[in-house]
Amino acid sequence: MNNDFEFRQLAWFRAVAEEKSFTRAAETLGVSQPSLSRAIQKLESQFEQPLFERRPREVVLTEMGEQFFARAIQIISLVNDTFSELAESGAHGTVRVAVIPTIAPYLLPRLLKTFAAANPTVSVVVQEDTTKNIIARCKHGEVDLAILALPVSGKYMEVESLFEEELVLVVPNGHELEKKKTIRLKDVRDFPFVMLDQAHCLSDNIASFCQRQSVEPISIERTSQLATVQELVSLSHGISMVPKMAEVIDNSNRRVYRSFSGDKPTRTIAMLSNPYRFETKWVKLFKNHLRATSKSFRPS
Predict the structure, then answer these.
(1) Identical fold at 93-162+268-297 and 164-266?
(2) What whole-number distance in Å separates Cα of residue 102 and Cα of residue 225?
(3) Which is more confident, 237 or 209?
(4) How far is C-alpha 130 from the chain's CA centre?
(5) Which 8-state DSSP code applies to residue 270?
(6) Average pLDDT, whole number, for the chain?
């Protein structure tokens, strides 16, 4: 077996294994698919056996591929941790944070501003993505911690609940529900809803709550941005449920927000990290600052 391979091949191999597709992996890595295919073929020739089984709709790891994937993750993590440990000895540090889109625009501005004021030598790099992708990035050390909403399905990860947040009803200005003093979930069952698409966990939070109350919202539109949901509500495309923090910063007079009576829909905001990775003092500082900032979002 020829042991002459580049470290870059490990990252490319991991991307194909996780995406189960050369096309998607190439897009994620920002390289051409032919270059990626050649790199994997070179790696397989060094092992003198295939690492992937090519199927019509996906590629999956062979038995040898599974073994190599486990070692590749260990090697990549070791290299990343080594850089983190060496970087900690300097005066400047970096914290890599991943956040889901339904939290990022509402929690981050205050969080980053106050953290920067208290820690001017620490840079915070933010990545915004869906829950599934964030869990994978945190697991493999691409980010130091993540801020998302429960539940989290990733194994061997450390999950710390930060605060529970109410989900409120948003309706266009002048809507008949605006005049109701008390709004129950059954009051909204016959109105069309504007929802986030299925990639966002907020949709799961809303769907789970509605199912417990035996209510099935009529969804007429789906979008990937919470701000778009709010604008579509303003244009009377439907009503929706949004996080309380989205209401707090909304200065528009074209829509109004109402709390539900009785059992209120909520979501739990949590911090996710990999307990098996080296944690720099900068990450510890950011975690503590996140915990302190989260107290102001907790219901009184």
Answers:
(1) yes
(2) 8
(3) 237
(4) 4
(5) E
(6) 88
CATH code of 164-266, in short, is 3.40.190.290
Tell me: the pLDDT tens digits for 214-263?
777 777 788 888 999 999 999 999 999 999 999 999 999 999 999 999 88
Inform me whether the pLDDT recorded for 153 exceeds 90.
Answer: no
* Region of poorest pLDDT, from 68-77, 100-109, 181-190, 271-280: 68-77
CATH 3.40.190.10 fits 93-162+268-297, yes or no: yes
* Statement: the pTM of the whole predicted model exceeds 0.85: no
Q: Which residue has the tokens 């038995």?
A: 63
Nearest C-alpha neighbor of 161 from the set 25, 6, 295, 14 = 295
Q: Which residues pair with 220 in a beta bridge?
A: none
CATH number for 7-85 (one of 1.10.1040.10, 1.10.10.10, 3.90.79.10, 1.10.357.120): it is 1.10.10.10
Domain range list for the chain: 7-85, 93-162+268-297, 164-266
Compute the distance between CA of residue 63 and CA of residue 60 in angstroms, rounded to an integer. Answer: 10
Q: Using CB atoms within 10 A of its CB, is residue 88 exposed (0-12), middle (13-18) or buried (19+)? A: middle
> Quick count: other Cβ atoms within 10 Å of Cβ 144?
25
The interaxial angle of helices 33-47 and 22-29, nearest 10 deg, is: 110
User: Cα–Cα distance between 14 and 73 in angstroms, integer?
Assistant: 8
Residues 197/260, Cβ–Cβ less than 8 Å: no
Place of tokens 């890599």: 96
When pLDDT is averaged across residues 110-132 and rounded to a whole number, the result is 94
Tell me the average pLDDT across 88-100.
83
Secondary structure E strands in 47-92: 52-54, 59-61
Q: Which residue has the tokens 């956040």?
A: 99
- pLDDT > 90 in the chain, percent: 52
